[in-house]
Amino acid sequence: MTNIPSPPEQLPHADRNAEIAALRLAVQRLEADNSSLREQVASVVTANAHAAELMVELHEAQAALTGQNQRLQEQAAALATANAHAAELMVELHKAQQLLQEQNAQLELHNRFIRQTFGRYLTNEVVASLLDSPTGLVIGGEKRKVTLLMSDLRGFTTLSERLHPEEVVTILNRHLGTMVDVILRYHGTIDEFIGDAILVIFGAPIQRTDDAYRAVACAIEMQLAMTAVNAQNHRDGLPEVEMGIGIHTGEVVVGNIGSDKRTKYGVVGRHVNLTARIESCTVGSQILVSEATHREVGSLITIAEQMQVTAKGIETPITLYDVRGVGGVYNLALPIAEDLLLSLPRALPLWYSVVEDKRLGATAQAGYLVQVGPKGGTIRSQPGAAPLSDIKIQLTDGNGHDVPGSLYGKVLSYAPEYSTDFPVRFTAVAPEAALFLQRLIALCCPSPAS
Predict the structure, then answer these.
(1) pTM over 0.85
(2) In terms of Cα–Cα distance, which of 314, 337, 172, 176 is closest to 248?
(3) Are 428 and 407 in contact (CB under 8 A)?
(4) In a 3-state reduction of DSSP, which class is residue 261?
(5) pLDDT digit string, tens, across residues 304-355
(6) Maximum distance among all alpha carbons in the chain?
């Protein structure tokens, strides 16, 4: 603030004006200072008001932030709890996954065991049909054209009577094991084992366009595989065996047959019986097919002989074809084996009886053995035996004594109206009878070179 000097007692006029001007200037400055001070005070008041408002807002922001922090803390605590639960769940889930994997592994082993176990009684295709199809286990069937194959060991029943049970089982298992491998390669469905016989289906459960063709090719390979079977039998000191095969094509009922407690996948119908009749007409190493199968396969098969057969239970004669080979992709053939028959220097008396359904006829017919070979012979008799009939032969030594040991045979195809001599293929020969026949052959052919 400007200091105002005390007025002198007496000043000149000019000096007084100057003083007044100075006073006015001082007043103006004072007013300016006051105005500036008032503005500063107003600014401070305004600033204080703004500061108060900011403090209020800051307080509210702090309160809001405090609430948010509290909520975040609560959320963090909840998240931590959730994470802990999630960790526990992950541990439980891991345990559950391990348990599920173990159960799946056990289930896979169980399924594999079921399939392998069933596969020993049924083919893989039948097992798949039963287990994989929703209707696989439903009782019932359907009509379908299939090709049936039936094989049987010739004279095995008679052979088994003079062998130990272990030897019988060894021969049978060796034969069936080899045949099963062949059948499965040709996609045949093994319906059942009937002792030493096998019934095979081509066309069910899966039907193919070449069912009959595969059945014939399979039969030829089955016969070819008998060489390996008999080679093993020979190494083990066991007798050789021969197999006959019959094949027929027709419409049958195929499906699950039985009840809820016991079911079998198989076929029924007259064509099954006809196949068995065809097979019964065969001799060892022979394959006979019906006319229906021959039509299905056509020129792909090679035929050695065509014959007319009157089968039991069949009203009209049936035509059968003796198969020697099959062409096409399989291109298989049976070896040509000619059984040389030697004429005996003197006809050997014998007796024979017809065997029907494994029962021996009551009447024995007299005859003579006029030719003999390793696997058969020629019998002279009036009247002769019917072609393809099974007979039991009682040999004599030519001096009125019976030769010990049984001898069974099958009469081959011939024309009875033109001859009293009929050919016989031996099907079962006891060791004693076999030794006697060997002596007869040696008598007819004493020199090994002849």
Answers:
(1) no
(2) 314
(3) yes
(4) coil
(5) 999 988 877 777 889 999 999 999 999 999 998 777 899 999 999 999 999 8
(6) 206
Amino acid occupying residue 4: I
Taking only the tens place, the pLDDT of each residue in 207-242 is 999 999 999 999 999 999 999 999 999 999 999 999
At 377 the three-state DSSP class reads strand
Structure-token match 């072609």, residue found: 387
The answer to whether the CB of 373 falls within 8 A of the CB of 395 is: no
- What type of residue sits at position 389? S
Q: CA-CA distances (angstroms) from residue 415 to 222, 254, 309?
A: 31, 39, 12
Structure tokens at 220: 């030829």
Amino acid at 247: I
CA atoms of 307 and 286, how far apart (whole Å): 13
Q: How many residues does the chain have?
A: 450
DSSP string, 190-243: EEEEETTEEEEEESSSS--TTHHHHHHHHHHHHHHHHHHHHHHHHHTT-----E
Angle at 186 between CA 184 and CA 191, to 5 degrees: 55
Q: Which residues contact 263 (CB under 8 A, 6 or more apart)?
A: 137, 139, 256, 257
> The tokens of 182 are what?
């062949």
